[in-house]
Every structure is written in structure tokens, then in C-alpha cells.
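Troubleshooting entry. The earlier prediction with iron/sulfur cluster gave an output that would not parse, so I re-checked the input for stray whitespace and re-submitted. Clean input:
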Amino acid sequence: MLPEDWVARGLPIEVGRKLMTAAIRGNEVRGVKRAALEEIERTTSAESLRIEKRETAPDGFVKYLFEIGVEAVRIPVPCEAPGADVSAYAGKEKKYIVCVSSQAGCALACSFCATGALGFRRNLTAAEIVGQVLAVRAEADRPVRGVVFMGMGEPFLNYDHVIQAARILCHPSGGAIDAKSITISTAGIVPQIRRFTEEGHKFRLAVSLTHAVPSQRRKLMPIEQVHPTEELVRALHDHARARKTRVLVEYVLLGGVNDSPADAKALVDLLDRKLVKVDLIDVNGDTGGYRRASKKARSAFLDVLAGAQIPFAIRYSGGQEVSAGCGQLAAGERGARML
Ligand code: SF4
């Protein structure tokens, strides 16, 4: 519970803050009646999830499988991959970002995603989402400074628990992670994007697009049939204007499918370059039988984006050796049985 929730129960905000601190950190709280402490004990939990298995990739990414059968990934920043260019981080703090799951499985069945192939099992509670970060943080040798909701599941189909978890993670008495370092990624649930904008959250919004042509996107992301690209792009542009920030537009590059200069041109025509930043991700794993774009195709694609002055970045999706990359989380064979 957040301090504001305790205020709703008639307690002063400062007591609410102390109670939240006690719940998260297990501190003793002076000046709070025993009855209130018993109430917090009864109604809250700050348990980290039990780790079933951890696998470390050579580039420093660690994939965690939890007892409840979902996975999270600990991402080192800067990346420790041999030969990785870390010069941009000279003098900057070494830290971790945690990629968390919001659902067990996923109903959206994106054709390039291993989680989608599992189907939907259930929504995670806010405690189970926060518990992933607490478990990773408990054994981390660097501070955890960011959280991305890009693991298993569609966060905006579990909206209330995801927002509650994000609020706890950024609260000074809770996870104390900067709200702007918490990114929520959606495949395009337009009504919830609108709600997210109206509620004025400081968390960053990312939207997975992956094709700018609706008839092609439909084959890759069936959610297109429910929330078409046109509505989606209008909602993300409106969000960017309202929050005065760029929305991250994720584009999984699939060789021979969406990596041509014409595909890049369609993307340029669709997006307002002042309101977005395009995040390009090479497809991972073998779900859907896709292959990565060739260097030549990728470079021609990037030339079109650069020529149109669309800000973009190529996201390093690490942990390949342990299937921790974007779109690869499937909780393993054992975890899938546990779901
Ligand atoms: S990419 Fe995201 S929304 Fe699509 S199936 Fe995978 S987990 Fe679900």
C-alpha cells in the first residue's frame, strides 16, 4: 500500500510513509500504534519472489526464473559484452535495469514472441511485480536504477496492478527508483494509453509497432485488428504532446519482412519526428521462423530514418545465450509447466 492509501484509512500522510517504509524495509516504526503495525502486517507484503533458477550470459545479462513461473532479466548498464563500446559511460555510474513480467503468458500472440506462443495464464499482482525487482536487487552488486515492463505479458491488460507496482517502485519510501527511469511498454492497447495519458503518470511510455503498414502489421501483431495503427499513432502522439516527452516506438526488425527502404519510408510517413524516438531491435530466437535483417538491409533502413531526421537507436538485446533477449521469455520448459 502507498502512503496515500493509508491516508484514505484516516492516518496522517507522515504515518503512511513510515508504514510503507516499514513494509518495504522491515524497519521498526516509532510512534505508531501496535494495531496499525498489525494491520500492515496483515494487509501488506514486501516479500521478494523466490528464485527458482538464474542463468548468466557472457555479456552480463542474467535471466531469473521465479517460483511463480515467470521470468525477469537483470540488464547491466553499461553492457559487459566483450568489445562493447562503453566510452559513452566513462565516469557514469554502473547500474542495473530490471526487465519485469506483468502477466504469466500473454494473450496477444505477436508472431515473433515466445511469450505470445504460451497463451495467457493470469495477471500478476502488484506484489508479484515488485517482488521481481526486490529479488534481483537483494543480490545485486550495483544499484538498480531502472525498471522496464518489457518482460512476459501485456502491461496495459493488467493496468491497475502494473500502475500500482510502478508507483511503489518509484515512491521514496518504496523502491526509490526515479519514475522517469520506469518504462511501460505496450503492444497498443489504445484505451489504456489514453487513460495513462489522462492520469498524468511520469513513467515513460513505449509502444511496440513493428510495421507501419496496417495490413502487414496485422500479420505480425493480431492486436492490430482491435486497435488499428491509425488510432494507436494518434494516441501516442497525443501522449507525447501532453507529457512533453518523446514516446519510444519499438520496431522489431525482421529480415525480408519489414526491413526494406519502403518499410522505413512508411514508418517515416506515419510518425511525427518531434514526438517519437524509434527503438530498433533485432529479432531474437526462432519463434515464428524469422531471421535477422542483413547488415546491408539494416543500413539502408537506417539511412531512410536518418534522412528524415527521425531520432532512433539500435537497442542491444543481450542475454541471447540464455534466451533472455526481447521476445524470448517463455519461462523455460519447467517454468511453462508451472504457469
Ligand atoms: S511481444 Fe509483448 S504483447 Fe506481444 S505476445 Fe510478446 S509479451 Fe505479448
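This one parsed fine. Residues 106, 108-110, 113, 115-116, 152-154, 187, 327 surround iron/sulfur cluster (CB under 6 Å).
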